[in-house]
Write a structure and sequence with these properties.
This protein is of the alpha+beta class. The protein has 15 helices and eleven strands.
């Protein structure tokens, strides 16, 4: 097993990199773009990009009016839609510029890059005040850095310089200055931010000493993320969708670092990552459908490039059975996702995984299956201070032939109230909206001390059973 703490030295970064050394699969693209573009996976990705690019002008405008809606009326979706559409169009134009090599797409790409660099902030209004770097600022830095790397011979020098200046000012320099709340690794933010910032440093930083300092800080953050965001059994309290979001940049960074150090540093080699990798198989209720605990949606599609590489590095080959033909659309327009879908996935699907009886005792999630009646029962314990928490200790959901008959409400509308002091006035988040009792007039309490535990799991008896003790979840002193 690797040492608990992974560290790098400046010496590892002093050897000049050959072109595409960090993304060696891209060499095939440079050698014969037309041949790669004819591959089934590439054709699907490029068709999606062309469809998006049909509407590439005018560039979506992240206006002040949309920006201030969050402060004035608590709405975030209108600004967010424009913000993310702009970046998706940038990614689509980058892929078309890579494969088509037409000046039209290079011009469109450079206009989008310049526009993003002109934005007052890369942090959307709902995350203002959290930190100078949030999820989306970090991902913007990663996407721009990778665009520079893959298209350095096609972009105008002043565009490349602008990317370097803006990423440095907005993300790289602030990252080295201090640590923010998301650095403590307890949820998906740590994986997203540290992984994306680390990738941007690996692409853009020229000083070996500064790069080593940055990478060691990234590794520190990701080690905390591995330890705190996932239970000892590998489970995530955030559900399958946020499991993917938190890990995808972690895997991308780990692979870039592995190549950059000549294989000396392989962050994914830690033995816990195999348990983490297998988590979605324990949350599965039907093909493409997962137990929608916390704010996770029930329907989840996984990035095939991410899943393929995570499975290969951890030995969790069963993960590949979660991919389907429509997986290729995941991350469409997000350059780091699409590039890895194209380069890391062979386009093959595997037989669907068997949905069996399973328990994750530390995570507090259990599944029982009745194949004869096509029934799946999911139940959870946990506590009421989990990531994206709902007050739902002891809740259960029942699916018959993939249809949720007794269901979890899933996530509510992401607005200011939903993530503020009023969160537990929302029936989606409080225990009223879940399959749990009201006791002595009380709903479940909020906080880590309100918790439950799976005390028995018996899939072998005549009647399969799960037992959860959750008396401590209620603020009722005489409750035994």
């Amino acid at each position: 097993m690797p040492s608990k703490t992974t560290r790098v030295s400046a010496r590892m970064f002093r050897t000049p990199l050959r072109r595409d050394a960090m993304l060696p699969e891209f060499r095939a693209v440079r050698r014969n773009r037309a041949k790669v573009a004819r591959l089934p996976v590439a054709r699907k990705i490029l068709r999606a990009c062309e469809k998006m690019a049909d509407d590439c002008t005018p560039i979506p405008d992240t206006t002040y009016t949309l920006f201030r809606e969050y402060r004035t009326i608590g709405v975030r979706r209108n600004y967010d839609q424009v913000y993310h559409r702009k970046r998706a169009m940038l990614g689509a134009a980058a892929l078309l510029a890579i494969f088509k090599r037409r000046q039209r797409w290079i011009d469109v790409l450079q206009d989008y890059i310049w526009n993003v660099c002109e934005e007052t902030t890369w942090v959307p209004p709902e995350h203002m005040g959290t930190a100078p770097i949030d999820l989306f600022a970090a991902e913007t830095a990663f996407a721009l850095a990778e665009t520079t790397h893959l298209l350095s011979d096609a972009l105008d020098p002043e565009v490349v310089d602008r990317i370097r200046d803006e990423v440095e000012r907005r993300v790289l320099a602030p990252y080295l200055e201090m640590e923010w709340s998301w650095f403590d690794g307890h949820n998906n933010w740590s994986g997203v931010c540290n992984g994306a910032v680390g990738a941007a440093f690996l692409y853009l930083e020229k000083s070996p000493a500064r790069l080593a300092r940055a990478v060691n800080k990234v590794l520190k953050g990701l080690e905390i993320f591995r330890r705190r965001a996932f239970l000892p059994d590998g489970g995530s309290s955030e559900g399958a969708g946020y499991w993917q979001y938190g890990l995808i940049n972690t895997v991308a960074f780990s692979e870039l670092l592995r190549r950059r150090t000549g294989g000396k540093v392989n962050f994914l080699s830690h033995e816990k990552f195999k348990r983490i990798a297998l988590y979605p198989l324990a949350a599965l209720v039907a093909p493409g459908e997962y137990y929608s605990c916390s704010d996770c949606h029930g329907t989840v599609r996984f990035s095939p490039g991410f899943i393929s590489r995570l499975a290969e590095r951890t030995g969790a080959e069963e993960l590949k059975s979660l991919l389907s033909r429509d997986s290729i659309s995941v991350g469409a327009g997000r350059l780091p996702w699409s590039v890895r879908n194209l380069l890391w996935w062979d386009g093959k699907t595997r037989p669907r995984p068997k949905i069996d009886d399973r328990v994750l005792p530390e995570t507090g999630v259990a599944r029982l299956v009745d194949p004869k009646h096509k029934m799946v029962l999911m139940a959870k314990a946990g506590n009421n201070a989990e990531n994206h928490n709902h007050n739902d200790v002891g809740t259960f959901a029942v699916y018959i032939d993939a249809e949720p008959l007794l269901c979890d409400p899933g996530c509510g509308l992401y607005d200011r109230a939903y993530f503020g002091p009023q969160r537990y006035e929302n029936p989606v988040c409080n225990s009223y909206g879940h399959s749990v009792p009201r006791i002595d007039g009380h709903q479940q309490g909020c906080g880590p001390r309100y918790q439950g535990k799976i005390i028995s799991f018996d899939p072998a008896g005549r009647d399969k059973t799960i037992s959860i003790e959750f008396a401590r979840t209620y603020p009722v002193k005489r409750l035994k």
